[in-house]
Amino acid sequence: MLIKPYLHHISLNVTDLERSKAFYGGVLGLEPLERPPFDFLGAWYSLGDNQQLHLILYDGETLRSGEINSRDGHFAIRVESFRQAVQWAEEAGIPYDARPNARAGFPQLYILDPDRNIIEINAESLD
C-alpha cells in the first residue's frame, strides 16, 4: 500500500495552447506557474495549496493501445517514498516506467490502470 498519497497535479491535453491559456488563466483566473524547459509546449497553473494543472499541447491519440506515454493525459499523486512506490509496483505485478532522475526535477513512476489510464506516482525527491 502506498503511504499517504495525495493529488499533486492533473495533466490535460489541449489542441490550442493560447486558447487554453486564455481560458485557464483569464476566464478561470488560475495563477500561472513556472514550467521546466521541456521539449514540448504547455503551461502550468496553481490549483489550491499544493496542487497544479498542467496543460500539454498534444496531437496524439488518447485511447491507449501501446506503451505508457507520459505526454498523454494523466493524473499524478505524490507519495513520501519513490523507492517504496517502485517496490509496491513490483510486488503488485504492475508494469511501470520508472524515472528516478526525471527532467521534471522530481522522481516519477508511471503506471496504467486496468482501463489503460495513465497514473503518475511521484515523490518530492529521490530517496
Automatic annotation (TrEMBL):
| Signal peptide extent | none
Among SUPFAM superfamilies, the record links this protein to: Glyoxalase/Bleomycin resistance protein/Dihydroxybiphenyl dioxygenase
The organism's superkingdom is given as Bacteria
The cross-references to Pfam families, in alphabetical order and at most eight, read: Glyoxalase
Keywords tagged on the record: Metal-binding
Q: Which residues form a coiled coil?
A: none
List, alphabetically, the InterPro entries matched.
Answer: Glyas_Bleomycin-R_OHBP_Dase, Glyas_Fos-R_dOase_dom, Glyoxalase_1_CS, VOC_core
A GO molecular-function term, please? Answer: lactoylglutathione lyase activity
| Residues of the VOC domain | 6-124
Task: Please give the name of this protein.
Answer: VOC family protein
